């Protein structure tokens, strides 16, 4: 198969075809996910929780992400590779340029940043310098201490409107993809409809342009608890490859996430 690019993903959205994504942190899983047809692999800073056993993503460093990005890039042939920029690695535009450069050199094709309109100048600057950017709105885990816990976001009308405004601002600044985490299904649908870039949901309902799960959650092996929006595909299938295939199928045909994995307003 031909290597997936941001143009492939944009065409999926335009065709109304769901985009499939998983986190990956090493070459072996990256190769397996890639061979099963997973379109996007994210080296998430979730690795702080699922690989390092920390209770948040805050301790993760750019060199941690770079290390795992090199491994994933070595294992994947076709999948589009996105790397998370860790907590405080993009506090200023100059920091963002330097750290994004490290992740792109490690094998990423796009970097992901958490936050709203305050990031616009950084996003524009990264894109001008050849670094495609994925935004991340809703429950942004790097801000867990501001939120006071891992909570569903955008439930009241004001917050929902603010999130839509931020999403449109990120797109206007040059973001080429958006991850939307832990918001009501209706808000996931509205953001996906309003934006022309692909919107990948996690706990954002079935109507986003694609879905992503943390691989450890999808396989039911997370050191931490299992979030409501995730599903254990390994226990359902009893086989690693079948688990991945079933997840990809259920994303493509809109069977996942069901109402039991989604949030109402
Ligand atoms: O770090 C991560 O794995 C993520 C996904 C949950 C979107 O940001
Ligand atoms: Na992340």
From TrEMBL:
Q: How is the cofactor bound?
A: Binds 1 Mg(2+) ion per subunit.
> Which SUPFAM superfamilies would you find in this protein's record?
Phosphoenolpyruvate/pyruvate domain
Taxonomically, which superkingdom?
A: Bacteria
| Keywords from the named record | Cytoplasm, Magnesium, Metal-binding, Pantothenate biosynthesis, Transferase
> Any idea of its EC number?
2.1.2.11
Q: Main location per UniProt?
A: cytoplasm
Q: GO terms for molecular function, please?
A: 3-methyl-2-oxobutanoate hydroxymethyltransferase activity
The UniProt record gives the binding positions of 3-methyl-2-oxobutanoate as 45-46, 84, 112
List of catalytic residues: 181 (proton acceptor)
The family database entries (InterPro entries) matched by this protein are listed as: Pantoate_hydroxy_MeTrfase (IPR003700), Pyrv/PenolPyrv_kinase-like_dom (IPR015813), Pyrv_kinase-like_dom_sf (IPR040442)
Q: Report the subcellular localization.
A: Cytoplasm
Catalytic activity annotation: (6R)-5,10-methylene-5,6,7,8-tetrahydrofolate + 3-methyl-2-oxobutanoate + H2O = 2-dehydropantoate + (6S)-5,6,7,8-tetrahydrofolate
Its top-level enzyme class, in one word, is: transferase
Q: Which residues bind Mg(2+)?
A: 45, 84, 114
Q: Identify the metabolic or biological route this protein is part of.
A: Cofactor biosynthesis; (R)-pantothenate biosynthesis; (R)-pantoate from 3-methyl-2-oxobutanoate: step 1/2
Q: Which cofactors are required for activity?
A: Mg(2+)
Q: What Pfam families would the database entry show?
A: Pantoate_transf (PF02548)
Provide the function of this protein: Catalyzes the reversible reaction in which hydroxymethyl group from 5,10-methylenetetrahydrofolate is transferred onto alpha-ketoisovalerate to form ketopantoate.
Mind telling me which NCBIfam families this protein's record contains?
Answer: panB, PRK00311.1
The entry's family comment says: Belongs to the PanB family.
- Complexes and interactors: Homodecamer; pentamer of dimers.
Q: What is this protein called?
A: 3-methyl-2-oxobutanoate hydroxymethyltransferase
- Provide the species name: Alteromonas gilva
Encoding gene (name): panB
């Amino acid at each position: 198969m031909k290597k997936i690019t941001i143009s492939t993903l944009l065409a999926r959205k335009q065709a109304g075809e769901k985009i499939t994504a998983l986190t990956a942190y090493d070459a072996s899983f990256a190769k397996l996910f890639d061979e099963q047809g997973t379109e996007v692999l994210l080296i998430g800073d979730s690795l702080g929780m699922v690989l390092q056993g920390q209770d948040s993503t805050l301790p993760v460093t750019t060199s941690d992400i770079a290390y795992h990005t090199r491994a994933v890039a070595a294992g994947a042939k076709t999948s589009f590779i996105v790397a998370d920029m860790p907590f405080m690695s993009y506090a200023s535009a100059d920091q963002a340029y330097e750290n994004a450069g490290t992740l792109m050199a490690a094998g990423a094709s796009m970097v992901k940043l958490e936050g709203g309109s305050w990031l616009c100048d950084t996003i524009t600057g990264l894109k001008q310098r050849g670094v495609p950017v994925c935004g991340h709105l809703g429950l942004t885990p790097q801000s867990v201490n501001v939120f006071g816990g891992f909570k569903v976001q955008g439930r009241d009308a004001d917050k929902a409107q603010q999130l839509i405004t931020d999403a449109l601002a990120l797109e206007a600044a040059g973001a080429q993809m958006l991850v939307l985490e832990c918001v009501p299904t209706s808000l996931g649908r509205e953001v996906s409809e309003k934006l022309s870039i692909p919107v990948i949901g996690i706990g954002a309902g079935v109507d986003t342009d694609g879905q992503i799960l943390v691989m450890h959650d999808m396989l039911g092996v997370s050191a931490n608890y299992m979030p409501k929006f995730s599903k254990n595909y390994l226990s359902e299938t009893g086989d690693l490859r079948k688990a991945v295939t079933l997840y990809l199928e259920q994303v493509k045909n809109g069977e996942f996430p069901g109402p039991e994995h989604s949030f109402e307003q």
